[in-house]
Amino acid sequence: EMAAARLSGTENRLVSLPLSRIRVIMKSSPEVSSINQDALFLTAKATELFVQYLATYSYKHGRGKEKNALTYTDLSHTAEECETFQFLADILPKKILASKYLKMLEKEKRDGEVREDNDEGEEEEDEDK
């Protein structure tokens, strides 16, 4: 209890992320009924350190160094290439032009139709046997 009381007075200086928002995110999980103040603080601090690590790693290994800036491309490249961060690949996808994306969707649709036709053909052959 003393740790929680001590943290509540200084938590704003120790963590730059808003604890109220983190509490809301944590409570959105159906398994979570109550959140201990220490757990909330530690989750916030761990998240902050993780974001710093991701940003620093992406900056050092990306093209941003040349421009003295961290770019979205640096972050998405890190998510794609670095095993540690691959779980973020869906959250940080590579940016592509909308026209390119529409062509990809169209191709997937065509390929899907071709596959479905082949599957049906195989099933018919099985019935004949």
TrEMBL record:
UniProt keywords, alphabetically: Acetylation, Coiled coil, DNA-binding, Nucleotidyltransferase, Nucleus, Phosphoprotein, Transferase
GO MF annotations, alphabetized: DNA binding; nucleotidyltransferase activity; protein heterodimerization activity
Region (Disordered) residue spans: 108-129
GO cellular component, one term: CHRAC
Location(s) in or outside the cell: Nucleus
CDD domains: HFD_CHRAC1-like
Principal location: nucleus
Domain Transcription factor CBF/NF-Y/archaeal histone: residue ranges: 16-77
Biased composition (Acidic residues): 116-129
GO terms of biological process kind: chromatin remodeling; DNA-templated DNA replication
Subunit record text: Heterodimer with POLE3; binds to DNA. Component of the CHRAC ISWI chromatin remodeling complex at least composed of SMARCA5/SNF2H, BAZ1A/ACF1, CHRAC1 and POLE3; the complex preferentially binds DNA through the CHRAC1-POLE3 heterodimer and possesses ATP-dependent nucleosome-remodeling activity. Within the complex, the heterodimer with POLE3 interacts with SMARCA5/SNF2H; the interaction is direct and enhances nucleosome sliding activity by the SMARCA5/SNF2H and BAZ1A/ACF1 interaction. Within the complex, the heterodimer with POLE3 interacts with BAZ1A/ACF1; the interactions are direct.
PANTHER family tied to this protein: CHROMATIN ACCESSIBILITY COMPLEX PROTEIN 1, HISTONE-LIKE TRANSCRIPTION FACTOR CCAAT-RELATED
Role this protein plays: Forms a complex with DNA polymerase epsilon subunit POLE3 and binds naked DNA, which is then incorporated into chromatin, aided by the nucleosome remodeling activity of ISWI/SNF2H and ACF1. Does not enhance nucleosome sliding activity of the ACF-5 ISWI chromatin remodeling complex.
Protein name: Chromatin accessibility complex protein 1
Source organism per UniProt: Hylia prasina (green hylia)
Annotated gene: Chrac1
